[in-house]
Amino acid sequence: MSNREVVALSVGGVRFVTRASTLQQFPESRLARMLSDGDQEFKLLNGEFFVDRDGTLFSYIMDFLRTLQVSLPTDFSDYQRLQREAEFYELYPLADLLSQEHLLKPRLEILEVLFSLQETQAFFRIFGSCSTTVETLAEQVTVFTGQQSGQRWKSPFTSQKPLIPLPLERPSHHDMVFRCGTEYSAGDHFVARYVSIKPDNRKLINGTNVLGLLLDTLLKDGFRLISTRTVSSEEKIECYSFERMKRPPALTI
């Protein structure tokens, strides 16, 4: 049996087909020895190996053998049962990883958007509990500036001068600040700031439109809006709070 290239297994009634080399990733494991030894737990029936274990949990074991990584769904909770299955198959590197349950569990991530609309300008401040998420969002947001003559801030851009991208303000690794709209410069000129949020290609100057696109981007990225509140009615500051369960990076052997 050890020279088989393709192996079929029935684990608790769930059928799996894989390469023998996949099962032999860890030569000391029972799955590797199954192909050559007469382990009583593994019955060979009609050319397939049968073992009376949990077939659903075995799918995660197969994923580990194929990738040498532990990557579990965000709603997974059977860490101890999966560790017990790994120990049964004598996959001790996997069992050791599963014993570090705190590294595998998804974490609740919080993100807040502060929005202030003042005359012809809109101000944004985004704070996130995960600095990586804020960094990724900062790479999606670009602010462009340029001069206009006698135009209101809600008007579309018509200047022939090229827009210049501006760096975002990053007070810390956990927040970012930017604004859009127009401000009076000199004579009949205005300085205009436009915001673009990837993958959308538009350059928006209206703060309400930018807010709508930003919130839609966060929702598409898996965040859930949990509250909206007015922080200051006098300064017209609103706060939008989001949360999501973030899967930790896969642990690799």
Automatic annotation (TrEMBL):
Gene Ontology annotations for the cellular component aspect, listed alphabetically: endoplasmic reticulum
One matching Pfam family: BTB_2
InterPro entries on file: BTB/POZ_dom, SKP1/BTB/POZ_sf, T1-type_BTB
GO biological process assignments: monoatomic ion transmembrane transport; protein homooligomerization
UniProt keyword list: Ion channel, Ion transport, Transport
BTB domain residues: 5-106
Protein name: Putative potassium channel regulatory protein
Record organism: Calypte anna (Anna's hummingbird)
